[in-house]
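anyone seen this seq b4? input:
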Amino acid sequence: MWLRHFLFLILLLFFFCLINHSLCDDSCSYSGGTPEAGSCDGPITRSIAKRSSLSVTNSDCSIGLVPYKKDGSSTILCGECVPGTSGTDSESTCALNEFCTDSASCEHIKSHELYGATCPYDDIISFTSDGAVVGSSWCGTGLRCIQHQCVGCVEGSVNYTGGWRMCVHGEWTTSAWVRITKDPIALAAPLTIILCFLLFILPVSCMACARRKREKIEGLYFEGEESSYDDSY
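predicted toks r here
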């Protein structure tokens, strides 16, 4: 009797594995490292496996946090962002115009405790190997020393790295309206189109007006001749 129950359980397990073979197949798993190409059914399955192994793929931090270490420490902590980074330089964790605090949370650049503070030397822009702007040691993360003041960007400056943005009122904006009204390069294209349109339309309109005026004058002239001819009789 027990043998029959055992075989029945084996059969159920076999059919269960056929229906959901991913539960019975450990080839698509990050527990032993990155799965080899072809070991997962596709990109979605690979992403699911990556999310289910956060102890390996994200240093045991939850899916909404990133791992980081404090200066001089080997202990891995979890936070919203990595201290020392900002969205102004690279939007990998914090949004544009945000900076990462020492407690690993994203805050707006204007809430920075050194925003607007005086500083001794203007920053010379330099970049890391991944293209991020190196922050000012006098102003802190996300700020630069410009004309002896800690600011997020130079007023009126335009940056085309990773897309268009312009510095307005001390912070970056990607507003299309600002781009059209304040960026001379962006403004040149629509103005050129409008100018070409006017240069084409105005002569044509003037010629049409002149022709209608001439036809009207000629019509009045012919009507006057006809009336004078009738009066003579």
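Strands lie at 66-68, 77-79, 98-100, 106-108, 144-146, 149-151, 158-159, 165-168, 171-173. Residues 155-192 form one domain. kinda curious what u guys think
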